[in-house]
Each structure stands twice: as structure tokens, then as C-alpha cells.
Design goal:
With 676 residues, the chain is α/β, with parallel strands linked by helices. Among the domains are: 226 residues, no CATH class; 236 residues, no CATH class. It is 45% helix and 10% strand. The strands form 6 sheets. The chain has a 6-stranded mixed beta sheet with strand order 5-6-7-14-13-17. Strand 6, helix 13 and strand 7 form a beta-alpha-beta unit. Helix 20 packs across helix 23. It is globular and about 80 Å long.
């Protein structure tokens, strides 16, 4: 990393870019809140006003420009309108398109003039809105070009005199045009907008520049580092549940449409750039398989050692067959990317909502505990009661997500499927319109069932009545029983075949409960192993038969309970690769924390890399690792001013530790810390 890039990085960490910001002027929202206007035109008018209010920011030595300066932008609907919409429709989260991966490649190649030509003479809300938005974006880019000229930055001035009207001619052009498109989608109102397989759709530009001598690899890396820094100029304006949950994820590697290894020089440069910068954005997801060479795992583990919480791994050997089994075209399945966190989606063809609901496995156990345990003659009968609860809950959830309303997204529609040809906004659907349902608290449910089998039915040392009373009392007055259940060895993560078999049963029941059900858009429901925020934010937290108290959170995603004394990382991997995860392919990674000291030596790094390789070869679908030091994290809570750049993995995303709320910080600290 040279001095220029180092200075840009330091400026971002210091927040220098924020001095250029100003709030959206109050009163101007009236223009796009006119109830007589269709929502698509409201969206376009707001976008145009944002573009016209933006202040061009160009430094003399900038090579990639465009950043948000207008903040606190009002919604296109008033609070009263949103209340009325929610009374009549099902709105997912904010009611905007989210967790989507556009197909950037076409417009990067052709430019927006080609889009205008393709819709010339066509009428309809999408086309009218898109013309208004493109015109506004042209005005903004022209002002940026003029500002660059004024600053003496002739390279940026020339580039923006062509872009975004024309397509990219070089790697630098392609990076800049992506920045313009990505900026525009966020400014339009969509969120958790994914970068996707950048190493695939931008590689031809890099290869051409290297072949012609326009760039050296060193030049390309510097461009890429500045490009990656640009993701951090606006990231605080795109928060989800917490700062850092912005969905700016890149997927590297994997396979081509023909099934060949797709990892290339740009993939490697992206890994190097992230390792050099050590910033929270963009998040890296690495697609791997049984054919992935060991040295690639080693290089990826060196990135983990930086404490970034990524790369996150996705296993092509599980994901691709799983998607094909759900009806995805094989070519599309091989082109999969991930949503904001880890859910599997298809670039440019998906209007999927991969986080539309969540099923709580512990709740199914809890209901069966109170209604069936006292009357069941054996454990298998009780397990059947739990399975019935899961099946019923899965079907109930599918009934709660009908009559969906999503606000139009004209600019984004331009980058999605055949929207331009049909004039149909992407919010109304695409090639794939599937809904994903998270599966929360799996390990807690498994551990609870294992405890019931062990102590109620096998040993018969705990009566159903006493267990139910202890649960209802949150273990108050039941100290001995609490200790027995909490510290029993029959837990998922210890590699015990009969315990892990319970996970197989629960996941299979979940998937079967959704099988054959279609949503109102013709899509299916996908079962998953993720938890998202529900491991902390949920009304469905109570004392459980594994010794978890009501106030204690679940483990994140597809991971052991927080209080399990596992035998080591290999036993955890053995447990969590036992189920056939092609059946629950909505996504949700095994999350593991390793002490930072594990990465101090080359041997330590290689040992962790080999663990990842074993996970993949044993059939794990997703994995994310954290390099942590609990004592450092605790000190950061006491002295946050000393740890501004400390990054941790939260669930499907990484964030600066000191920017997280205390409950998220505490959860990271309480997770089990492994060593190698």
C-alpha cells in the first residue's frame, strides 16, 4: 500500500469525508410525496433531487470518485401512508427492494446511452421514471467532471465526460462506472445491495489493460485499493440492525458456467487489497470446493488472521446441487452469489426475499414440552410431537407472508433480468421469486432434546413435571437440575452421533414442512440454517432443557450453544457437517472464533486453513471464522478510543467493534474461543 492509498485509508477511518455532508432540505419532500403520483415516479423525483443536491467532491489525485453528501433523506411515503400500507399489505422490513444482486456487467459494457436508446419511444411508469433518473445522474456526473477539471484532475474529468453515458473502455473505467451504478441504487432507496462476482464481470477489463501495457499489476492493485476505500465513504449511511450491516459483499472464486475454476488474478488482487486495507467494507465471500487448492485456504486464512471476520466460505459442492434440486437452472446455480449476509441468490435474476421469516426450533421443543411430554411413553413419541410442531409452524409462517407490497425500483430494474424489455419493475418479480425462512436456535433445540432423552427417558432421573416446573421457573430453585443440564456432555458440537442425528431430523422436518408450498409470486419457500438478528432480538427466548436461562441468547446461525464445553474445533466440524445441508440451502454459516494467537505462526495459519478444508470436504455448506482476543475486546469496551479500527464478525457481516451496541459486543465475547 503506497503513501497515497495509506492517506486515503487514514482519512476514511478518521471520518474526514463526513465534513462534506448536509441534510436533505426539509420541505422539498413534498414534490415526491404527492399522493397523485405513482410510487415509481415518486422514487424517480426523489432520486433526481438527491442528485441535484449532491456536492461533487474530487481531490487532485483521486482516481475513483462519487460519495454521498446528502443525508437524512425522507422516504417517498409519509408515516401515515406507510401505516395505511402496512394495514393493507405485508411489507418486508422497510418495504423497499433489498438483499439483491444486480447484473452490473451489461451496463458497465454499454453505458446508459444504450439504455435510453433501447427504451426510446416506449411508454410506461418504469420507462418514464428511468428517463428522469438517468438525466439527473448525467447532470451529477457532469458536475463531477467539471469539479475534477477545476481541481486539475484531468484523468477523472475525462473519464466522467464519457461515463456513465458510454461503456467502460478500461479497468479504471469499469471500477468508476460500477461506483456510479452502486451509488445510484442506494440513492434510489434500495438497501443491502450486493456487489456480487466482481472478479468475474470486471476481469476482462483488467486482463485487457495488462495485456496492452496500460496497467501493471501494481497499478491495478492501487486502483482496486482506492475502489475498496470508496465503499467506506457511505457505509455508515446504510445500516441494518447495527452499524456495519450494510450488505456490501463481494463473492470471489467459485466456478464458471462450465464448472471450471473461476478464481483468477482479480480474485487474488481483491484478497490482497482487503488484507492491505483492513477495513470493514467490502466484505469478502470466497466460494470453494473439494478442488480448491490448499494454498488458497492458506491465503484466505491470512486474511482471517487480520481480524476482519472474512472471508466467509461457501461450498460449491453443497450449494450448487442444493440450488439445482430446488429448481434453479444449473447455469444460474453455478453463478450464485450471496445476499447481504449469506443467503444464496442469483445475480440479475432474483427478486427473492431470503430473510422473510424465521422458525425457532427451541419454540417447537417448548410447545411440545408443555403439551406432550407428560403423556408420551418414550422419546421417539416426544420427538414426533416436536416434528409436528415444526411442520405446523413452517406452514403457519408461509401463510403470514401474503399480499406482499414492495416499493418500485426503476434504476435497479434496469440491471435486472428482462425488466427493460417488459417494462415491469423488478419489485413485481423476476425469474426467481423464492422466500427464505431462517432456522433459529438449532443447537439449543438439539441439546434440549438430547437432555430430555438422556435424563427423562433413558436415566429417568428427571420427571417431566420437574423439568417443566424448572423451565417455567427459569431454574430458580432448581440449581442442581440446572447444573446437570447445562454441563451435560450430550451437546451438539461434541461429535456424538446420536446427538447430531437429532439435528438431521429437525432440519429434514423443517425442509419437508416447506416442500411443495408456493408463495403468491410462484416461488418456493427455502429452509435455512441462519439466525440473522433473532439470536438476540426475539420474543421467543425462554429457559430451555439444555440449561439455557431465559435472558441468555442463542448461538448465532448454525453454531453450538454459547455455553457448550466442546471438545475442540474438529468435533464441532464433525457435528455440523453431519446433516445433508443441500436440503436447507437458504444459507446460514457455522461460525467459529479462534484466539488471535492461533494465527501468529505459519504453522498456526496452516492448521486453521486445514480445518476449513476439512469442513468443506466433509460437506459443510458455509463457514465464517473470527480471530479474536477476549481480553482485547473487554479492554475495547472500557477504552473504545483506543480501538477505532478493531473489526469483528457479528453474524453475516463484519463491523467495527466499538460501534456495536453493548449486547452485540457481549455476545461476541461470550462465544467459545478455540485454539490450534
Amino acid at each position: 500500500m503506497n503513501h497515497r492509498i495509506q492517506a486515503l485509508r487514514n482519512a476514511v477511518l478518521a471520518g474526514d469525508h463526513k465534513i462534506c455532508r448536509s441534510p436533505f432540505p426539509r420541505g422539498k419532500e413534498a414534490a415526491f410525496r404527492d399522493p397523485a403520483l405513482p410510487y415509481s415516479m415518486r422514487t424517480a423525483i426523489r432520486f433526481a433531487k438527491i442528485c441535484d443536491l449532491e456536492r461533487p467532491v474530487v481531490a487532485k489525485d483521486s482516481r475513483i470518485v462519487l460519495q454521498r453528501t446528502v443525508i437524512d433523506v425522507p422516504e417517498v411515503c409519509s408515516d401515515e401512508e406507510m401505516t395505511a400500507l402496512r394495514a393493507s399489505y405485508f411489507l418486508h422490513e422497510r418495504g423497499n427492494v433489498s438483499n439483491i444482486c444486480p447484473d452490473y456487467a451489461g451496463v458497465i459494457a454499454s453505458g446508459l446511452d444504450a439504455v435510453l436508446i433501447s427504451i426510446d419511444g416506449k411508454s410506461g411508469q418504469l420507462y418514464d421514471a428511468l428517463r428522469l433518473e438517468i438525466a439527473a445522474l448525467y447532470r451529477l456526473c457532469d458536475r463531477y467532471s467539471a469539479e475534477a477539471e477545476r481541481m486539475g484532475n484531468t484523468a477523472v474529468a475525462e473519464r466522467l465526460s464519457r461515463l456513465p453515458r458510454k461503456g467502460a473502455k478500461s479497468f479504471a473505467d469499469a471500477l468508476q462506472l460500477f461506483r456510479i451504478l452502486h451509488f445510484s441504487i442506494w440513492a434510489e432507496g434500495e438497501y443491502h445491495v450486493i456487489v456480487g462476482r466482481l472478479d468475474q464481470y470486471l476481469y476482462p477489463y483488467l486482463a485487457a489493460d495488462l495485456a496492452s501495457g496500460v496497467l501493471t499489476e501494481e497499478d491495478a492493485l492501487e486502483l482496486l485499493e482506492e475502489f475498496f476505500i470508496s465503499f467506506n465513504l457511505d457505509s455508515d449511511l446504510y445500516p441494518g440492525m447495527q452499524q456495519g450491516d450494510d450488505g456490501q459483499s463481494i463473492v470471489l472464486g467459485g466456478c464458471t458456467a462450465d464448472g471450471e475454476d473461476a478464481y483468477n488474478l482479480l480474485s487474488q488482487l481483491c484478497m490482497t487489497a482487503c488484507g492491505n486495507l483492513c477495513l470493514a467494507d467490502p466484505k469478502i465471500n470466497l466460494r470453494v470446493s473439494q478442488n480448491t487448492p490448499e494454498e488458497r485456504y492458506v491465503e484466505a486464512t491470512k486474511l482471517t488472521a487480520k481480524g476482519l471476520g472474512f472471508p466467509q466460505y461457501s461450498n460449491d459442492d453443497v450449494v450448487i446441487p442444493g440450488l439445482i434440486a430446488l429448481g434453479y437452472d444449473p447455469v444460474d446455480a453455478r453463478n450464485y452469489t450471496v445476499a447481504a449476509c449469506w443467503e444464496f441468490i442469483i445475480p440479475g435474476k432474483g427478486m427473492e426475499i431470503p430473510n422473510i421469516a424465521a422458525l425457532f426450533f427451541p419454540s417447537a421443543v417448548n410447545r411440545a414440552l408443555h403439551t406432550s411430554l407428560a403423556d408420551t411413553p418414550d422419546f421417539d413419541s416426544f420427538l414426533d410431537a416436536v416434528k409436528s410442531e415444526i411442520t405446523a409452524e413452517a406452514k403457519r409462517l408461509t401463510e403470514t407472508v401474503k399480499n406482499l407490497f414492495i416499493l418500485p425500483a426503476p434504476f435497479l430494474s434496469m440491471l435486472e433480468g428482462d425488466c427493460l424489455q417488459t417494462g415491469r419493475d423488478v419489485s413485481l418479480g423476476n425469474v426467481y421469486n423464492h422466500y427464505g425462512i431462517h432456522g433459529v436456535g438449532l443447537s439449543t433445540a438439539v441439546d434440549s432434546l438430547a437432555a430430555i432423552r438422556q435424563f427423562v427417558f433413558k436415566k429417568q432421573t428427571v420427571s417431566p413435571a420437574d423439568l417443566i416446573a424448572a423451565i417455567d421457573a427459569d431454574y430458580a430453585g432448581y440449581t442442581d437440575l440446572y447444573t446437570t443440564l447445562r454441563y451435560a456432555d450430550c451437546k451438539m458440537g461434541n461429535g456424538i452421533k446420536e446427538v447430531d442425528g437429532l439435528a438431521v431430523t429437525l432440519l429434514k422436518t423443517f425442509a419437508n414442512g416447506l416442500n411443495g408450498i408456493r408463495n403468491e409470486r410462484g416461488g418456493i419457500f427455502r429452509a435455512g440454517t441462519g439466525s440473522a438478528m433473532f439470536y438476540l432480538h426475539s420474543d421467543e427466548s425462554f429457559a430451555t432443557p439444555d440449561g439455557k436461562c431465559a435472558a441468555e441468547p442463542y448461538g448465532t446461525n448454525y453454531s453450538p450453544g454459547l455455553y457448550v464445553r466442546n471438545k475442540g474445533p474438529l468435533s464441532v466440524i464433525r457435528s455440523f457437517t453431519t446433516p445433508d445441508l443441500t436440503k436447507t440451502i437458504n444459507g446460514g454459516p457455522l461460525t467459529m472464533e479462534f484466539h488471535a494467537d492461533s494465527f501468529l505462526t505459519e504453522q498456526g495459519i496452516r492448521s486453521v486453513a486445514l480445518l476449513v478444508k476439512v469442513f468443506v470436504e466433509k460437506g459443510g455448506h458455509q463457514l465464517q471464522l473470527n480471530a479474536v482476543d477476549v481480553e482485547v475486546l473487554k479492554d475495547a469496551q472500557l477504552h473504545p478510543e483506543n480501538y477505532r479500527s478493531l473489526i469483528v464478525r457479528v453474524w453475516g457481516w463484519s463491523a467495527y467493534f466499538v460501534e456495536l451496541s453493548r449486547e452485540y459486543q457481549d455476545h461476541v465475547i461470550r462465544r467459545q474461543e478455540f485454539a490450534v
